[in-house]
Amino acid sequence: MIRSIWWGKRVGMLAGLVEALGLAGTAALIWRNYRSNPGRVIRVRLRGTREDILLRARTSDFHTFCQIFALREYDFENFEDVRQSAFVREAYEEDVRAGGTPLIIDAGGNIGLAAIWFARRFPQARIVSLEPEGANFELLRRNTAGHPNITPLRMALWAEKERVCLRNPGAEPWAFQVGRGPGAGTEVSFEALGVSDILRQEKHERILIAKIDVEGAESEIFAKNTEWIDRARLLIVELHDHLIPFTRTSRSFYRAISGIDAEVVNMGENAFVFTGMPDHREAVACVAGAPATARVPSVAYAAR
């Protein structure tokens, strides 16, 4: 059975790549990735676009690209039950109709792939993408240069404004961790901001989406100054107890969301936390016009 699941995921990823890149584009990406020297920058172009996305061959960049654009791990609008997702989309559209600019925070921006995904799905939103590591940030800056609504910041997300350091400079590009005190290598310290700092800086009161994939730093982000959480329509958080065992990195996250009115859907590696949801009767009435394929169970649906 495990072998069947493994093959099923690989087939699904390949099908997703073909959908995102076309058959020729998929073949070219796989060939370039595995035939190039490790770290060499290769180019890939999404179907229907004129902009190249830069990846480093034979690094975690390829895996990250597949997760976001082939497996579509942030595509909460493609859940089997679409009711919670419909309220996020409606919040976006209401803000745009009112002349506002919805705010998306991308913490752990890596090389900008998630920011590009959100920019394509929410083109009128302003996206602030934070990435502290230098090489990652340079690719993030280059990859998002064609998207004026994406602002790259070489910073980390934290509970509050503070100086932090890289803890594992020799890690894979997706696995850099930050913490207090001197780093384990030669990386200089850099500035970290709290979510409330970003809201003040951007002159926003609410957040449409906060995506947080910060390799364990969620333990600090959710430890204090969490009054912003119920001002975010959706949190997308990857937890890392599996990456840093025995450190309880998820504890502060669960404590923080337990005190707010929210529903949690677990999909893949991420917890999708929807806030400000109506009760069941209101939800059924509000999404009566949703696609006929949408299920309407009597309890919140947890995606498999």
UniProtKB/TrEMBL annotation:
Ranges annotated as spanning the membrane: 12-31
Residues covered by the Methyltransferase FkbM domain: 106-246
Keyword Transferase: yes
The UniProt record lists the keyword Iron-sulfur: no
A Gene Ontology BP annotation from the UniProt entry: methylation
A GO term for molecular function: methyltransferase activity
Keywords associated with the record: Membrane, Methyltransferase, Transferase, Transmembrane, Transmembrane helix
PANTHER family: METHYLTRANSFERASE, FKBM FAMILY PROTEIN (PTHR34203), SLL1173 PROTEIN (PTHR34203:SF15)
Name of the protein this chain belongs to: FkbM family methyltransferase
